[in-house]
């Protein structure tokens, strides 16, 4: 039986109540952390429940390498401690997951410091969808500069509303527009910034559908496009030849199908932006072109048994 916190987190991620790749990974780890607080479970029961929790959580979002990395981390650290006595095993794993959350915060703070330097006083920035890491960049920049952000509504679930509300709370000047108006407003823009859900081995950016169209518009107007993403967004599965799945969601998010009887309604959640449309990737390691970023990560990412197991689960095995 799956722990209630794990089931609740799975459903929240699947239904997009938890958004942003980094936040998804953090909340998944937090669910397992809650499971570990169950003192009435033996070590053997904990290992079994954590394994089942990982299997479920990794299926919650197919296009989420940060989530897969996080779940591999949990399995790896659990394996490293499996010879410890029961209570020591539990407390040791609790400490490890606390350290994970702290390290993630440090990474985001580092990205915010680097990324905020791209925004100059008086700039107009355009953004699409919602990224918790990008919001930290905006927050850092807002402490030192005045700028405006054009926020797309991000149909069909309007994640742009979340972005706009958080920016307004920071005191940032916000202009909220429909997605299809991005080209119209691009003549006013100095900088295009988004997050990323995935960066593939061939340096492509997978992000909320609409990202690529706005990137094309930015290129036409000579507006630089930077992707704000931690190294966790690089998907080592693509090194192994796996094709990153593009999640298609319920057509009813777009329109009630009964309003268009006979029509096929498609609702892809993501699109793919080629590297030639991206000026740079802002990560905790610094700012790099997409090809340089991928070259660095391809040489660093070691696919161990735990990560391979997670990749297999995510892509239909196990």
Please provide a written account of the structure.
The chain has 318 residues and is an alpha/beta fold. The chain is 46% helix and 12% strand. The protein has eleven helices and ten strands. Strands 3-2-1-4-7-9-10 form a seven-stranded mixed sheet, with helices on both faces. The protein starts with a helix and ends with a helix. The relative contact order is 0.13. The mean pLDDT is 91.
Task: Write a concise synopsis of the structure shown.
The chain has 318 residues and is α/β, with parallel strands linked by helices. It has 2 domains: 4-110 and 304-314, Four Helix Bundle (Hemerythrin (Met), subunit A) (Up-down Bundle); 113-300, Rossmann fold. Helix content is 46%, strand content 12%.
Secondary structure: elements and pairs:
Elements: H1 4-14, H2 21-36, H3 43-57, H4 65-80, H5 86-116, E1 124-127, H6 132-142, E2 148-152, H7 159-169, E3 173-177, H8 182-185, E4 191-194, E5 198-199, E6 205-208, H9 211-220, E7 225-228, E8 270-273, E9 280-283, E10 286-288, H10 290-300, H11 305-314
Parallel strand pairs: 1-2, 1-4, 2-3, 4-7, 7-9
Antiparallel strand pairs: 5-6, 6-8, 9-10
Helix pairs in contact: 1-2, 2-3, 2-4, 2-5, 3-4, 4-11, 5-6
């Amino acid at each position: 039986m799956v722990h209630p916190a794990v089931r609740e987190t799975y459903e929240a991620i699947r239904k997009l109540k938890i958004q942003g790749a980094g936040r998804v990974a953090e909340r998944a780890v937090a669910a397992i952390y809650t499971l570990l607080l169950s003192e009435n479970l033996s070590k053997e029961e904990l290992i079994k429940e954590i394994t089942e929790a990982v299997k479920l959580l990794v299926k919650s979002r197919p296009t989420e390498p940060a989530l897969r990395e996080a779940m591999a981390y949990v399995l790896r650290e659990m394996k490293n401690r499996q010879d410890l006595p029961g209570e020591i095993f539990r407390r040791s794993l609790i400490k490890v997951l606390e350290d994970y959350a702290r390290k993630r915060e440090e990474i985001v703070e580092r990205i915010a410091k680097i990324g905020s330097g791209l925004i100059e006083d008086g700039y107009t920035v355009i953004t699409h969808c919602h990224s918790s890491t990008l919001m930290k960049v905006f927050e850092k920049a807002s402490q030192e500069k005045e700028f405006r952000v054009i926020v797309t509504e991000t149909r069909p679930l309007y994640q742009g509303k979340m972005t706009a509300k958080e920016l307004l709370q920071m005191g940032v000047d916000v202009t909220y527009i429909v997605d299809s108006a991005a080209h119209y407003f691009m003549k006013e823009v100095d900088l295009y910034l988004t997050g990323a859900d995935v960066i593939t081995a061939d340096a492509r950016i997978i992000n909320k559908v609409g990202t690529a169209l706005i990137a094309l518009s930015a290129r036409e107007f000579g507006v630089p496009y930077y992707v704000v993403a931690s190294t966790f967004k690089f998907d080592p599965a693509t090194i192994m030849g796996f094709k990153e799945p593009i999640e298609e969601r319920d057509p009813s998010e777009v329109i009630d199908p009964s309003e268009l009887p006979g029509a096929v309604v498609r609702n892809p959640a993501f699109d793919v932006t080629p590297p030639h449309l991206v000026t740079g990737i802002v990560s905790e390691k610094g700012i790099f072109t997409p090809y340089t970023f991928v070259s660095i990560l391809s040489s660093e990412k070691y696919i161990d048994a735990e990560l391979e197991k997670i990749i297999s689960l995510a892509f239909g095995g196990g």
